[in-house]
Task: inverse folding
């Protein structure tokens, strides 16, 4: 097992290099660069724009820009400099990491906590009215874009006299030290993003859990277990669910990058102080090293997530062995 | 020396005896004069008198306390006014740092700022500023050293990404700054410069004692680009000091910027009460304008800018007794930028190039634009006929004569003109070029700017009527900018903000400049004007801008710019369409934000108060 993990970690290196080259190429294919915005400003002369391009190194061939960037990372852990913020990119990303992980974590927790019990209920009561109802809600969750759901929830909240629209806190609690009132205020705001962003994930998970559990419930050993006179509870929770959960663990690994990238449009609409809107701005402005670092972090989390999922699978299912 | 009421400087000190002495010349006299000035400025500095704010900013005298909450459409990327191009940062910093001379927010006239007076010599090339006796918010005195430093090493530093060096360079020569004594500074201009005080209103003073370490010219081992790394968003807020009404007290990344009042601010209201009234000024970062509006409705934000589309709903709520007022101000500020239609005079297709350069063709197209319909349909009636491009409210420069020159909507006349140009109906309603090819135009505009989109669709219909097929190219505004710069378009709807002084927009409206984009061949690859490629009337405009730049007499300057507006209205190098009104909604709890008699919205953060 240990060997397997080491091998996986080592193969990540070439993978990351290929991903970084791909990302950098895509960024370079984008028309214009960071200095394009200066061209429309009557205060800045075209000579000055050329001067800025030269200082930022944007006049160099892309391959050289890429190698300089990689050299910085390898030699000094420097992921580059944000053109827009005039600061090292890792600092900027770190500043926004806390709320990003907190909100995404809460959302992921919400969707799992809701989806698994519902999925189990739907599977064990298949073709019942409640199953149809939950499946229907699930379809709505999959088909409504989360930003739209966010708008609808905000509208309803406002219509019902709520004042918690957008953001994570009421104005006076932003930056204030933690207190009971601040926590309550957070919870008053947090339910909208959690439901809006979480619902689409929830819906997918419900369907996955239901389908997987139905497959397992149809197998012979479940019939045997029932035949032996085991209680319904034991049959389902001890035998069926434990086997049906495997596909969900694979999905779990894929969700790790969502911790930072999440749903960008929904975050803008909900005015969340997370990485999504920040990344979107960087893309629009061609703030290339910020975009690169962000994409690399996202790719890295994806690889790590897959590895974690594989390890978890081995731990939960004794039949799976990586030797 | 020009009088106290001129457009150049509101309260220029009128001291004719000084002029006479100077006029006689002689080094001795000059030195004597300097000595007199020194004594004068010393007596001035002995009295640290607070300045009374223009009564035009008040609806009523306010009371101290409370906080005003405003929305900010993006997080500030830096707190360095000169390191970035970022409206969010500018919005915040205008509360913190200040210029030598200000624009009166109610009337637009130039009034004293950190310079309490200034005088201009006979030749118009020497301006002496007498500084106000104020301190930076950390207690350090504000002196002539700060002014010379800010101008030389920050404002005119071309390594600073948000510099204004171009505005302080005349004919390739920079304005020179010199300290006379702690309270006076002399600016020496390469030539007279009519818009000098106007451009100074955008040059905010930064503290030398905080900025100096970032300047390459003053420190060994510091790179030229380091100036941009001053006052980034991770700078301890106590380091960010200013002379303005507020100072930074807290920044929560991507959420909120809090400013608190500067207790030693130098402005007082008309009854002598210290300004600002507010204890705190809070900016909430809200990217989405619908959410901003929702937060305004819920009472979290006190004042927002709205669009013509939101207007009817909000107005109805106001009439139903909502706790806010909706203000419809006549346009005075640069934004919303008024859209115009332009054709590419340097397009590769020779036939199109020829017709785009033909005055009659553009005049015909002007008559296909129903400005009144656009104002009604696109702007919900909340727009006006624009100037070309000076705003009618800008009494210092607007030339009303253009109203009779601008062509009204008249499709019949447009058809006649097109016939004259040789673009004729071939019999089935399709207009063809002299070569027999049907006239088809690609109209490019920004898909994410709603008015531009709507206007494009209206134009498509009008042109259809004429027998011209239009292909709409609706793309993101960034791409529109790139196509414009690269000259890859046929017809385009674009917009540039208005400015009070045409000089500030010469990069756009003077032929041969970098943003005179519809006729790019008037500029060579070294960014120099090519007079040979200009039409006769373009040459005249080029000269008018050159003349206006060095003219100090406001009456003569207006005459130059009047002629420019008339030529623009007659020759329509670009066709102005409409200018949206300034729409705001403000909570009833906020005082001193109001419509003044001339229909303009007035309301500054330092005169606002909580009722």
Result:
């Amino acid at each position: 097992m240990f060997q397997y993990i080491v091998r996986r970690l080592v193969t990540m290196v070439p993978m990351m290099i290929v991903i970084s080259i791909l990302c950098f190429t895509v960024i370079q294919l984008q028309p214009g660069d960071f200095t394009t915005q200066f061209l429309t400003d009557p205060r800045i002369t075209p000579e000055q724009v050329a001067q800025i391009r030269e200082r930022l190194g944007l006049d160099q061939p892309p391959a050289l820009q890429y190698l300089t960037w990689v050299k910085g990372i390898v030699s000094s852990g420097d992921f580059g400099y944000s053109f827009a913020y005039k600061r090292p990119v890792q600092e900027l990303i770190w500043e926004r990491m806390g709320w990003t992980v907190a909100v995404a974590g809460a959302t992921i927790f919400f969707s799992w906590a809701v989806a698994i019990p519902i999925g189990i209920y739907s599977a064990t009561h298949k073709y019942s009215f409640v199953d149809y109802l939950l499946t229907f809600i699930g379809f709505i969750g999959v088909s409504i874009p989360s930003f739209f759901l966010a708008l609808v929830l905000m509208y309803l909240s406002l219509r019902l006299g709520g004042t918690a629209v957008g953001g994570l806190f009421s104005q006076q609690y932003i930056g204030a030290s933690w207190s009971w009132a601040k926590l309550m205020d957070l919870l008053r705001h947090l339910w909208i993003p959690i439901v809006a962003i979480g619902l689409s994930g929830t819906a997918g998970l419900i369907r996955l859990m239901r389908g997987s559990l139905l497959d397992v419930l149809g197998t012979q050993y479940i019939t045997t277990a029932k035949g032996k006179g085991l209680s319904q509870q034991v049959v389902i929770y001890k035998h069926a669910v434990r086997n049906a959960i495997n596909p969900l663990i694979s999905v779990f690994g894929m969700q790790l990058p969502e911790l930072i990238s999440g749903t960008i449009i929904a975050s803008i609409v909900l005015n969340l102080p997370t990485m999504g809107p920040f990344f979107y701005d960087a893309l629009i402005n061609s703030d290339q090293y910020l975009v690169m670092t962000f994409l690399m972090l996202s790719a890295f989390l994806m690889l790590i997530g897959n590895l974690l999922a594989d390890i978890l699978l081995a731990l939960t299912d004794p039949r799976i062995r990586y030797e | 020396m020009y009088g106290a009421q001129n457009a150049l400087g509101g309260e220029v000190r009128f001291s004719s005896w000084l002029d006479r002495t100077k006029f006689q010349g002689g080094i001795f006299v000059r030195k004597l004069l300097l000595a007199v000035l020194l004594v004068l400025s010393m007596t001035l500095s002995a009295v640290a008198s607070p300045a009374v704010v223009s009564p035009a900013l008040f609806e009523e005298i306010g009371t101290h306390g409370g906080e005003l909450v405003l929305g900010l459409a993006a997080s500030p990327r830096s707190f360095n006014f000169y390191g970035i191009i970022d409206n969010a940062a500018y919005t915040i910093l205008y509360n913190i740092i200040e210029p030598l001379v200000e624009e009166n927010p109610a009337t637009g006239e130039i009034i004293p700022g950190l310079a309490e007076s200034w005088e201009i010599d006979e030749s118009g090339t020497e301006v002496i500023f007498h500084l106000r006796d104020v301190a930076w918010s950390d207690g350090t005195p504000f002196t002539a050293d700060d002014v010379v430093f800010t101008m030389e090493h920050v404002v005119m530093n071309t390594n600073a990404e948000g510099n204004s060096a171009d505005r302080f360079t005349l004919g390739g020569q920079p304005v020179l700054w010199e300290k006379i004594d702690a309270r006076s500074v002399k600016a020496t201009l390469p030539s007279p410069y009519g818009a000098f005080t106007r451009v100074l209103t955008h040059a905010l003073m930064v503290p030398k004692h905080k900025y100096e370490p970032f300047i390459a010219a003053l420190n060994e081992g510091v790179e030229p680009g380091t100036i941009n790394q001053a006052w980034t968003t991770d700078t301890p807020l106590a380091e960010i000091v200013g002379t303005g009404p507020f100072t930074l007290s807290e920044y929560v990344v991507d959420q909120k910027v809090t400013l608190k009042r500067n207790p030693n601010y130098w402005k007082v209201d008309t009854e002598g009460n210290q300004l600002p009234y507010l204890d705190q000024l809070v900016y909430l970062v809200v990217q989405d304008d619908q959410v901003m509006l929702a937060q305004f409705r819920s009472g979290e934000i006190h004042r927002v800018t709205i669009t013509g589309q939101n207007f009817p709903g909000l107005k109805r709520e106001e009439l139903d007794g909502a706790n806010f007022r909706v203000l419809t101000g006549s346009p005075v500020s640069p934004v919303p930028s008024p859209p115009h239609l332009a054709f590419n005079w340097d397009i590769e297709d020779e036939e199109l190039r020829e017709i785009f350069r033909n005055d009659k063709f553009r005049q015909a197209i002007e008559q296909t634009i129903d400005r009144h319909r656009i104002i009604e349909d696109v702007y919900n009636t909340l727009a006006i006929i624009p100037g070309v491009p000076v705003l009618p409210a800008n009494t210092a420069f607007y030339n009303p004569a253009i109203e009779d020159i601008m062509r009204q909507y008249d499709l019949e006349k447009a058809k006649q003109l097109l016939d004259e140009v040789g673009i004729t109906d071939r019999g089935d309603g399709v207009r063809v070029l002299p070569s027999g090819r049907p006239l088809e135009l690609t109209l490019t505009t920004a898909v994410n700017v709603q008015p531009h989109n709507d206007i494009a669709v209206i134009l498509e219909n009008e042109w259809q009527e004429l027998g011209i097929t239009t292909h709409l190219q609706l793309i993101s505004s960034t791409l529109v900018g790139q196509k414009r710069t690269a000259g890859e378009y046929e017809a385009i709807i674009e917009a540039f903000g208005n400015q009070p002084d045409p000089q500030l927009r010469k990069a756009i409206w003077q032929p041969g400049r970098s943003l005179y984009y519809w006729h790019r061949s008037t500029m060579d690859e070294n960014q120099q004007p090519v007079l040979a490629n200009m039409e006769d009337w373009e040459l005249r405009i080029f000269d008018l801008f050159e003349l206006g730049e060095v003219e100090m007499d406001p009456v003569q300057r207006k005459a130059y710019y009047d002629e420019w507006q008339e030529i623009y209205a007659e020759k329509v190098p670009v066709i102005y369409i409409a200018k949206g009104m300034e729409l705001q909604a403000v909570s009833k709890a906020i005082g001193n934000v109001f419509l003044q008699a001339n229909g303009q919205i007035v309301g500054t953060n330092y005169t606002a108060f909580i009722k």
User: Anything to note?
Assistant: The CA atoms of residues 85 and 181 of chain A lie 34 Å apart. Residues 180-217 of chain A form the longest helix (38 residues). The mean pLDDT of chain A is 87.
